[in-house]
Amino acid sequence: MGRMTEKADLASGRATLSDVAREARVSLATADRVLNNRAGVHAKSIARVREAVARLNYRPDPAAARLARTRSHRWCLVLPSGGNAFVAQLQAELAACRAWLEDHRASVQILEVDVFEPQRLADLLRSLQGQCETAIVMGLDHPLVQNAIDGLVDGGCEVITLVSDVPRSRRHAYVGIDNAAAGRTAASLLGRFVGREPGEVGVVAGSLSLRDHAERCLGFNQVMTTEFTHLTVLPAVQGKDSPALNEVLVRQLLAEHPRLRAIYSVGAGNAGISAALKAAGREREVVFIGHELTPAARADLLDGTLDAVINQDAGHEIRSALRQALARATREPVHADQERIRIDIYLKDNLP
Amino acid sequence: MGRMTEKADLASGRATLSDVAREARVSLATADRVLNNRAGVHAKSIARVREAVARLNYRPDPAAARLARTRSHRWCLVLPSGGNAFVAQLQAELAACRAWLEDHRASVQILEVDVFEPQRLADLLRSLQGQCETAIVMGLDHPLVQNAIDGLVDGGCEVITLVSDVPRSRRHAYVGIDNAAAGRTAASLLGRFVGREPGEVGVVAGSLSLRDHAERCLGFNQVMTTEFTHLTVLPAVQGKDSPALNEVLVRQLLAEHPRLRAIYSVGAGNAGISAALKAAGREREVVFIGHELTPAARADLLDGTLDAVINQDAGHEIRSALRQALARATREPVHADQERIRIDIYLKDNLP
DNA sequence: CTGTTAGCGCTTTCAC
DNA sequence: GTGAAAGCGCTAACAG
């Protein structure tokens, strides 16, 4: 219907913002204002531009936008202090994204904070207000933290939770796995690996007040109690993700339960569990399943101490969080499919 | 040592090609020629530019390059005709990359060819000469094909093999999984799921002359014969990836081997195997492991017919092939880590 | 063999 | 409210 311009019609390429501006009978600047939701444009103009965008099927060229943009993006990444191997992996993967960040005119500041101190984390989050345009936080699901996140969001900061969600907050996105499903996966694998003989199953968690650990336990128990009724899941013991503590706990478990058939390690500190099993000479006969493919886990998988590892790809998580931060900042679309974090299962045979 | 320019020194941003040109005392155009290995530059100039690049730590801005480039990329994707579900997934994932392709000024032409006809495939490949700058081919490992690939490569076409490699060819890259490792993974899982009772294990392949199928069998047998000696792996039967043929073959298997404990399906056509198991009422007791998470496989996993699926992520493979095609065309670096295709294991519990 | 110059499609002052 | 115009950092003619 509408009159069409030669260029929009004939040119093999896509419509540009100038095309849109011309069609809408406004200037390039005004078209840009509408596209980027900047204030101070007459409703009439807005409508005309929108209409032209739709009619010409206009999509901004991200390369041009990136090149023209002078302001650069400031993001923050909040991680637990005290360096367990998985957190170290996240840091390493971030470092590997340096060139990508430069290319996209973005910089990331890493902040460390004690995970077990909700107040500290909340304070830190609050201090980020105005310091960065988006905060990527590997958090702790606690009312104080939830509240601090909501405060940041209200202040106009984008918030993305990483690895461990704070679902009741108003964070803009969560990058990580479904931990209940991960727990169920561990249970299916463990149950089938143990086989028919009855016996007990030990569960070693870091802390059940960590949302991801609690959810994994939930999923695990759900499957064990419905599908593997010949196995008794012992109450979870908590070792604060510490190898030393875990070792003691597993020694006790082994001593007290001669029929212990398997161990599910929900959190970190697997080295301790591995050590206790080896000390008892039962590392081959007790089925042992844990999380996160660290270098140590890899070795234990290869020598048969660990039977399977449930993993979330740290590199994928970091890249996904960064891509989403960028997409939100530039209002580019995200390829949802590519951002779904998989629950990886590793046996010794399919190690990367 | 070298005298440095204000801009290179002080500016917070990165060095630009103009900086490099100035430092090397040549023009922008000459600097560009060196950077893009274009002919007709004095050795002296080349050296000076290279030195300046190194000294300033110059890295081209991909956004600027993409914007300035007028020529667009023409790529071809060669797929087997006859549409099995996995190939359909690849097509769908390519379609989902449309916007990405547009943004990168690239277009992909899909070509279908009968996989079981090496001569046809070889002819098709040869016809691509000069038609596209890179060919992404899901091929067939046969001397004729290998030869055609080498011909393309000699003619200056980039070649990337997808899903099934042609390792003796001079293709520039392979995007896909290690199929022997995938076979080993299937064996480990199957062996442990079956448990201690002795019995037979059936193997259903599409065609052992397909490299990926042959390699999976190899890996599978390797693990079965060393780690699960109480199980006897029957000779592989070949069903050409056809559900109908596979159903007949599995009916026979079930009839002839009352102690059949498990089936490993190496290729496509799992619907037939599933049907045969259900017809015999043995779908829950026979362990069934196959490849590729198609919609049908998903359903069989959920109802317990399939016990595990070994998968390669079609979306990841397509995106990875496209990114590598782009990287080769623009000589941008690739993030190797991100391009490694995982051997995914899916149980009903960790379905995406 | 080398340099000059005009864009690519946006963003962003700065004037009106 | 709106528009004109100057870049962003590279590529690609086109002259020398």
UniProtKB/TrEMBL annotation, chains A, B:
Domain HTH lacI-type: 15-69
InterPro entries, sorted: HTH_LacI (IPR000843), Lambda_DNA-bd_dom_sf (IPR010982), Peripla_BP_I (IPR028082), SBP_2_dom (IPR025997)
GO molecular function terms noted in the UniProt entry: DNA-binding transcription factor activity; transcription cis-regulatory region binding
Regions crossing the membrane: none
Keywords: DNA-binding, Transcription, Transcription regulation
Protein name per its UniProtKB record: Transcriptional regulator, LacI family
Taxonomic source organism: Hydrogenophaga intermedia
